[in-house]
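[Q] Does anyone have a clean structure-token version of this?
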Amino acid sequence: MTTTTIKVPTFDELEFEEKRHIYTLNGAVIPSVTTIMKPLSQSLYGGIDEAVLNAAAARGTAVHNAIENYTLFGIADLAPEYRGYLDAYIAWRNEYSPEPLANECKVYHKILRYAGTSDMLAVIDGKLILIDFKTSSSVNKMLTGVQLEAYAKAYESHGLKVDGKAILHLKKNGKFSWVYYDRNDSASWDVFGALLTVFNHIEKYKK
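[A] Here you go.
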């Protein structure tokens, strides 16, 4: 597989309001993967102080923005307290030689009508890999497997099939770990489907 044979779809009909974290499809609000997965994330992070969660979110946003600037423009600009995470990303690029096709990719499922933003689609060793970056202290597969599968199935609904999925876990000390997932994860997809059913059921009775 070469990059010339892959066309990553873009979706002008899908808009994202970052401040409220709301996706709209042709003007209609649709749920995000993050929102649908709240029962899972709350089971892990529900008891953590809000200030700690906000600090982690700010770090993640800063690192994601820095990665995008580095990937697109070669600019290595990040606050000193976060620089190690960017160094980890650069080390990963040097080792894996990815060919990035798209960054911060907004996508929605054509039939199930949910949306999300995957961090990167890249060709590595001839395979199209869906990648999400994490700066947390560890990678929780209960969450990440479901999240990646939801993104992959959304792309697949538009005719783009990935060959694999991965979490690039970036660490403050400049190190990284590469957590790879197979293309089809039926267990994670079943979980996401159940969460979506519950979400839709709750929304139905809000109206």
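[Q] Thanks! Anything notable?
[A] The longest strand covers residues 99-108.
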